[in-house]
Structure formats: C-alpha cells, structure tokens
Amino acid sequence: MAKGKLVVYTGCSGVGKGTIMKKLLKRNPNIKLSVSCTTRPPRDEDIEGVTYYFVTKDRFKEIINEDGFLEHAEFCGNMYGTPEKPLNDLLEKGFDVFLEIEVDGGMQVMKKRPDCVSIFITPPSMEELEKRLRGRATEDEETIIKRMARAKEEMEFEKFYKYSVLNDNADRAADEILSILKEEKE
Ligand code: 5GP
Fold first, then answer.
1. Residue 59: in which H helix or E strand, if any?
2. Where along the chain do its domains lie?
3. Residue nearest to atom 21 of ligand 1 (CA)
4. 47-89 confidence digits (pLDDT tens)
5. Cα–Cα distance, 23 to 142 (Å, whole number)
6. In terms of Cα–Cα distance, which of 7, 1, 44 is closest to 178?
7. pLDDT value for 115
8. Spatial separation of the C-alpha atoms in residues 38 and 30, rounded to whole Å
9. Does residue 71 line the site of ligand 1, with CB under 6 A?
10. What is the per-residue pLDDT for 134?
11. Which atom of ligand 1 lies at the shortest distance from residue 69's CA?
C-alpha cells in the first residue's frame, strides 16, 4: 500500500485553521490529524488525547531526551511537540496526516521530511485576525496581545511554504486544500 502524505499545516492563532481542519476530517476519512504534546494548560474545549496530550514540562523534556518528537518548539511560553512514532504508523497505513503546527516546527519538518506538503493559512487581514482572536474569548488580554505579536512574526514565514490558502471562507479553503492534496498524490 502507498504511504500517506505528510502535511505541514500552519496558520497563526485565530486564523480559523481548527474550523477548516474539522471540515477536512469530516469530508475525507483518509485524513488524520496528529495529536501533539503540550505543556500549555487545557482550555474548556480541549480533550486529553484528542486535541492534545497535556504533559508537564519535565515529561516534555524527557520525551525530547528520548528523541520522541519529530519536531518541537516553544510558542508564547508553552512547549509543543509532534510525537514521531504514532505519526509514522499512520503514514505507513496510508493515511494522509496533518500536523497543525506553528512555523518553527513547520520549518523543522520541511528540513527533515522534504517530501512533505506544506500549507500556510492566511487571514483576510490582520484586523480580521484580531477580531477573530478576541471573538474566541478563550484567552486573557495579555495572551491576545502576545498571540497577535506572534501572528505578525509568523506571517513572515508564509514564503517558505509551498501553498498559501486564504481563509475567506472555511468551506472554500477546505475545498482548496482537498484539491492540493489530490494533486500532490497524483
Ligand atoms: P494552541 O495553544 O492555540 O492550541 O496552539 C498554539 C500554536 O501551537 C498553534 O499555532 C498550533 O498550531 C501550534 N502547535 C500545536 N501543536 C504543535 C506541535 O506539536 N508543534 C509545534 N511546533 N506547534 C504546535
């Protein structure tokens, strides 16, 4: 059986990548989302083992030392990492696996796995992004300011990604990503 595609899927906080991802998972059963480890505290909507594996800083360091991550990075004061073994198992089984990760991790994966497909999700504007981030109301003001500053830095990395997809509408963006994936698999 052919191996699945590894997809680096990046977009700044509030861009709507989670919403697009849910649509992709619903519409294409061959797509899987890799579950990352993080040291950030869970939000109300988080589910252990589904949205993330929530680990302590010590456990996170242990996994780094065991060489258990394909990539890992710090984002706004918390650590995030992609467990490598479950990812490879899914790819071997033929699933297309999306890594919903920030730019530092994205760059690490592009280097280690040059055959990956990299997709960067862009907002219609920075004003719209701030509106969405505030509308989410899951973060305090300090976090929103940190995430907006980081979003501006992250936009600089768009040029390193093979594809840019504008999220003017989540259904349309999902359609575009499914076409990209189809084309890449041909
Ligand atoms: P959040 O705290 O909003 O869930 O995620 C913050 C940022 O970390 C998002 O850009 C998200 O895509 C990214 N992220 C989530 N998991 C990983 C991971 O395993 N590695 C890296 N490098 N970034 C991740």
1. helix 57-65
2. 6-185
3. 101
4. 999 999 999 999 999 999 999 999 999 998 999 999 999 999 9
5. 30
6. 7
7. 96
8. 25
9. yes
10. 87
11. 19
Q: Is the pLDDT of residue 103 over 80?
A: yes
pLDDT value at 12 more than 80:
yes
**Phi, psi of 170, rounded to the nearest 5 degrees:** -65, -35
CB of 7 sitting under 6 A from ligand 1: no
Q: What pLDDT is stored for residue 139 in this prediction?
A: 74
Q: Which CATH superfamily is domain 6-185 in?
A: P-loop containing nucleotide triphosphate hydrolases (3.40.50.300)
The conformation of residue 161, written as its DSSP 8-state character, comes to: S
What sign does the CA torsion over 143, 46, 35, 26 have? negative
Rounded to the nearest whole angstrom, what is the distance from the C-alpha of residue 1 to the centroid of ligand 1?
31
Alpha carbon distance 54, 70 (integer Å): 17
Half-sphere CA count of 15, side-chain side, radius 13 A: 30
Ligand 1 center to residue 76 CA distance, Å? 10
Which of 15, 102, 104 maximizes ligand 1 atoms within 8 Å of its Cβ, making it the mutation to test the pocket? 102
pLDDT interval class at 140 (50, 70, 90):
confident
Confidence grade of residue 136 (pLDDT, cut at 50, 70, 90): confident
